Structures are given as structure tokens and as C-alpha cells.
Amino acid sequence: MPLTTAPDTSPTSIGAAILKLLLPHHRTTDRAPATAEAFPHQIHRMAHFVGRGAPIVFTLPGFPCKSPNPAKVLGHLPDQGERLSLTFLNTLCAEIERIYPPGARVIICSDGHVFGDLIHVSDEHIDAYADELRTLIARWGLERLSVFDLRDVLGDLPHDTKRAHVHQRYAPTLDALRAEIRADAQALALYRGITRFLAEDTADHAGTRSALQRACRQRAYGVIQRSRAWGDLIAEHHPHAVRLSIHPQPLGAPKFGIRLLDAPDVWTTPWHSAALHRTDGTWTLMPRARAAQLGRLVWQDGRASHFAQS
């Protein structure tokens, strides 16, 4: 009688199986296909939860606020792009639950207040955006998601005071960051990507293009400093969580880059774009001005929601 091998149910093996569910959504600039074994850091983190029979906790910094450029977005509140992204994350947690019954949850670490002054978005709009995320999660029954922002850490202190506190306590020095960007290709790509976004999002610049680029390069350093600070604060509050990222990440990085929706550019996010419902039933993200050329505007709950091809 042939011997059969019992399935491996060790925490590490289950962590690898969960990682395989994430791989189709990996946001990266690497061209080579990846296997679960290329992500030992994430598997180790997941094994920590599996070994305790606890739900796996993912943290995802992002969902800060809408771009201030009206050529890119439909308004300052979440729309169909965010709805689809939130639903995707909740569904991904449900898929994990099928192979690991305790399941998973995603803490969306909304970071708009961390650098709102640098991206020129008002704190009132940032509050409204994060509050609407919470409303959408409750209305759509996305019980595997939650939102965490600076209000959960520092309460009702003035926003500038909160930003100063986070920067002073957690941010790397400007000299250290500049040295890293000079030496590390991934850091340089992030710096260039953020500089590009800042330039695109500045819709009311009255000076020269070169002056705008200089200002955006300086602001980009500040955005990265604050983003790093926010990441360290999140790690302090959620020390065992598996860290996701909306930015492309190389194989084996401590953060796992995750693609929320289809887009032609790996840097595109729902808060920098509008959603287009294509004739084949699929969705993609693109600047509002481009989506308006390809489809008709659709309203939902009294607000502009997305574009649809007919």
C-alpha cells in the first residue's frame, strides 16, 4: 500500500500558501516572475500570527486624500476607485480565510495629515476623505477593514502640532535621506516618482516649469521623510503586522507592494486618478481628463463617481 504524505500545516507553510494568494497582485518594477520563497520576511511575519491561531494583520499606509489637481480626480472625496480598492482588499482577506480560517484584516493607515502641508491639501479635505472611507467600509459591510490615522494617535491636537511631533520623533535627517537616494536605485525611483506626482498635482503654479521642478524636488524630500516617520509610527503601534505598500517594491523587500486596481502605470493609485469602466466589464485607473475622453460621467449617491464606456 503506497504511503501518502500528510499536508504540511506548519505556520511557515501556511504563511507561504497565503503569500501565493498575494503574488498575482504584487506591485513591483521587477520583470522576473516571483515565487513565495522570495518573500521570507512576509512569510515569517504571517507565521507569527498562524502559530497563535490569530487573524493575520496587514498594515497599508496610503489612502491619504484626493489629488488637488482637478484634471486628475473627480473631487476631494473617495469615489468608485476607492470603493473598488476597498472591496478588493476585503475580498483578499476573505480568500485568505478559505485556507486559514482565522482569516486576515487590513488596517488602512491613512497618511494624508502626515504630509498635507507638503502636498497642498487642506486638513479639512483630508478629514472628510478619511471619514468617508470609514463610512464606505461600514455601509458596504467590509468588516475585515479598518482605518487608522493621526487622530487615533494624537487625538485633537492641531494638525501642525501632530505633524511636527511625528517628524521630530521618527523622520530621518535630510542629509541621511539624500545620501540614501544617491546610493540606492529603489530610493531614487521613489524620489523621482513623488517629485513627478507633486509637479502634476500643482495645478495653479504661476512661475516657470524649472522653478516648479525645484520646489517639488525639495517637497519630495519632505514627503519621504514624513512617510518614513509614519511607517515607523505604524510599526510601533502594530509591531507584528505584515507591511503592505502602494509603491512598487523589489523581491524580498520588508514591504510587499500591492496593486489595488489595474492601471497602465505601476505608480497610479485611486487618489491620483479616476476609474473607467471599460466595455469588456473591467476597470482601470487614469487621469480624469483622459477618462472623460473615453467614457461618460456616472453619478452615485449624488456625487460624480466614475466614467463608463458605452
Structural write-up:
With 310 residues, the protein is α/β, with parallel strands linked by helices. The protein has helices spanning 11-22, 40-50, 80-99, 112-119, 123-139, 150-154, 159-170, 174-183, 185-201, 209-237, 288-294; strands at 56-62, 104-110, 145-148, 242-245, 256-257, 274-277, 283-286, 296-300, 303-308. The chain has a five-stranded parallel sheet, with helices on both faces. Strands 7-6-9-8 form a four-stranded mixed sheet. The radius of gyration is 20 Å and the shape is globular.
Strand content: 5-15%
Helix content: 40-55%
Q: Order of strands in the sheet with the most strands?
A: 3-2-1-4-5
Oligomeric nature of the chains:
single chain
Rg estimate, integer Å: 20 Å
Distance between the termini: 61 Å
Count up the helices: 11
Order of helices and strands: HHEHEHHEHHHHHEEEEHEE
Question: Describe the biggest sheet?
Answer: 5 strands, parallel
Mean pLDDT: 92
Low-confidence stretches: none
Short synopsis of the structure:
The chain has 310 residues and is of the alpha/beta class. It has eleven helices and nine strands.
Give the helices and strands, then pairings.
Blueprint: H1 11-22, H2 40-50, E1 56-62, H3 80-99, E2 104-110, H4 112-119, H5 123-139, E3 145-148, H6 150-154, H7 159-170, H8 174-183, H9 185-201, H10 209-237, E4 242-245, E5 256-257, E6 274-277, E7 283-286, H11 288-294, E8 296-300, E9 303-308
Parallel strand pairs: 1-2, 1-4, 2-3, 4-5, 6-9
Antiparallel strand pairs: 6-7, 8-9
